[in-house]
């Protein structure tokens, strides 16, 4: 019985099949089947019931799964506590919502590299719905998104919230939101959905929303007089200081955006978990500094 065999056994049990486990582990299906067969032979028992729909654990398999998870948790703990941070050279795939890119992502990456100077980082920027899917499909290791992700396999660390504010072109009268276009987040985002519902409930279906995938582009649209906008207050400070846009209060606004640093807790990856903690510290310093 080897550690590779136990890892392979866990992937097969979690994903319910040899093919999906092979894809996740980036090895061949015969290699996965060989490891499972060798493990069953070494233990002298059958671990899976096999059918055309896939595989399910036997009673002995369920017992081994519990032991295997404990063993791998110990292995991750050993890596975290024994391997010096400066020697960690793993790849960390991070998915980030655009709001965070323009706030504290640079500070987070700087702190991450200071702690782990040899790690390799890949950054993906997308909307929360896509990042959630990528996290569950294990194509990213850590997602900074509008959370939490409600899956039992995912751990979420709550991050400081981001306040939204209304902006209009400078030196303009208070707009009538029944007829003035509202520029805001991407159509596939939670703020867009919540804003659309509020506008319809308050002003009817005559309201116009101009969604954009770029917050900075949206603020420039407001500054050019196309309409008003609902965006994070931090983003607009430079345009306010330049006298191009200004805040206004229509008497209501959306709730603050709530973000989480989310990562897979099953199987747990200590690098992802510690990176999430660094993200919390970086976000807190930025938002309160």
Structural key phrases:
12 strands, D-Maltodextrin-Binding Protein, domain 2, transcription cis-regulatory region binding, Arc Repressor Mutant, subunit A, alpha/beta, 45% helix, single chain
Give the strand line-up of the largest sheet.
Answer: 4-3-5-12-6
CATH architecture assignment of the largest domain = 3-Layer(aba) Sandwich
- Major sheet attributes: 5 strands, mixed
Q: What is the H level of CATH, i.e. the homologous superfamily of the largest domain?
A: Periplasmic binding protein-like II
CATH topology of the largest domain: D-Maltodextrin-Binding Protein, domain 2
C-alpha end-to-end distance: 52 Å
How many H/I helices?
A: 11
The first-level CATH class of the largest domain is given as: Alpha Beta
Give a count of the beta strands, DSSP E runs of length 2 or more.
12
Shape: elongated
Q: State the helicity in percent bands.
A: 40-55%
Structural class by SSE content: alpha/beta
Which residues sit in consecutive blocks of at least 5 with pLDDT less than 50?
none
How large is the radius of gyration? 24 Å
Strand fraction equals 15-25%
GO molecular function, one term: DNA-binding transcription factor activity
InterPro entries: LysR_HTH_N, LysR_subst-bd, WH-like_DNA-bd_sf, WH_DNA-bd_sf
Family: Belongs to the LysR transcriptional regulatory family.
Domain HTH lysR-type: 1-58
Would you write up a description of this structure?
The structure is a single chain. It contains eleven helices and twelve strands. With 289 residues, it is of the alpha/beta class. α1 crosses α2 (18-25), α1 (3-15) crosses α4 (59-82) and α6 packs across α11 (270-288). A five-stranded mixed beta sheet has the order 4-3-5-12-6, with helices on both faces. A five-stranded mixed beta sheet has the order 9-8-10-7-11, with helices on both faces. Strands 1-2 form a two-stranded antiparallel ribbon. 30% of the residues are buried. It has helices spanning 3-15, 18-25, 29-43, 59-82, 98-101, 105-115, 128-136, 190-203, 215-223, 237-241, 270-288; strands at residues 48-51, 54-57, 91-96, 120-125, 142-146, 154-158, 164-169, 182-184, 209-211, 228-232, 245-248, 259-264. It folds into three domains: 3-82, Orthogonal Bundle (Arc Repressor Mutant, subunit A), CATH 1.10.10.10; 86-160 and 258-288, D-Maltodextrin-Binding Protein, domain 2 (3-Layer(aba) Sandwich), CATH 3.40.190.10; 164-248, Periplasmic binding protein-like II (D-Maltodextrin-Binding Protein, domain 2, 3-Layer(aba) Sandwich), CATH 3.40.190. β1 and β2 form a beta hairpin.
